[in-house]
Amino acid sequence: MDALLALTILKVVHVLSASIWIGSIVSLSLAVRVVRSVVGNPHSVAISAEMGRRLRPLTRTSLYMTLASGILMAYERGFLSGLLSLDIHYRPVFVVLLKIALGVSVLLTVGYHASLGSSLVRAKDANGLPKVRRRMSIVGWLTVAFSVILAILGTVLRFG
Ligand code: HEM
Predict the structure, then answer these.
(1) Measured in angstroms, how far is the CA atom of residue 129 from the centroid of ligand 1?
(2) Ligand 1 pocket mutation pick from 4, 63, 66, 96 by most atoms within 8 angstroms of CB
(3) What is the 155 CA–ligand 1 centroid distance (Å)?
(4) How far is ligand 1, taken at its centre, from the CA of residue 57, in Å?
(5) Which of 11, 73, 143 most suits a substitution to test ligand 1, by most atoms within 8 Å of the C-beta?
(6) What is the pLDDT of residues 111-155, one digit of tens each?
(7) How many domains, the chain?
(8) pLDDT digits over 50-102, tens only?
(9) Other Cβ atoms closer than 10 A to 111
(10) Helix (H, G, I), strand (E, B) or coil at 3
(11) From atom 20 of ligand 1, which residue's Cα is the shortest distance away?
(12) CA-CA distance, 117 to 46, in Å (whole number)?
């Protein structure tokens, strides 16, 4: 396939899936707050868990597609070879390294958030786990912050 066409397709997939990923996690985070303020604990836990479960195919697929297309695009644009040859004078190398580290961090926070959610749902008295709920909220917003930084770094790479 023509290299420019391949890069264009990857870029479209990357930007669209990144928009869906960020849009869905921001909406979900806000919806969880609304549900909690309307129905209160512990009912909000079950409703929030159900919303997360139903949206999971969209959130997970968009995240994986963003990460895969990002890595392929970095390869196509020669950023990965710059990284592997440890060319420290090549400025984008640091941005690519940071994007990879943040991409891995997002995978970890998403996994941790899901496991905290499972323990909250399994707990008999969800009111009795304020620490877990607080940690879930911090990890959730951290995931949003990492994802927004990844998008900003993507713009930096565009001009790199
Ligand atoms: C959740 C994770 C990620 C999000 C939300 C994200 C978001 C974005 C966005 C919005 C852009 C477009 C910026 C623009 O055109 O102005 C971009 C570009 C880019 N991203 Fe990502 N990204 C993510 C992960 C990754 C990863 C893990 C890599 C691998 C190194 C990567 C590599 C790239 C590259 C190479 C570009 C530049 C494309 C170009 O203009 O040639 N991205 N990213």
Answers:
(1) 37
(2) 66
(3) 7
(4) 21
(5) 73
(6) 999 999 988 888 766 555 788 889 999 999 999 999 999 999 999
(7) 1
(8) 999 999 999 999 999 999 999 999 999 888 887 777 766 667 888 999 999 99
(9) 11
(10) helix
(11) 154
(12) 10
Pocket of ligand 1 (CB under 6 A): 11, 14-15, 18, 21-22, 66-67, 70-71, 73-74, 77, 79, 96, 99-100, 103, 106, 147, 150-151, 154-155, 157-158
Domain that holds residue 116: 3-158
CA-nearest of 109, 106, 116, 120 to 149 is 106
- CA 55 vs CA 14, 105, 108, 151, 152: distances in Å: 19, 21, 19, 21, 25
Q: What one-letter code names the amino acid at 30?
A: L
Burial group, residue 159, by CB count within 10 angstroms (0-12, 13-18, 19+): exposed
Report how far ligand 1's centroid is from the alpha carbon of 78 (Å): 14
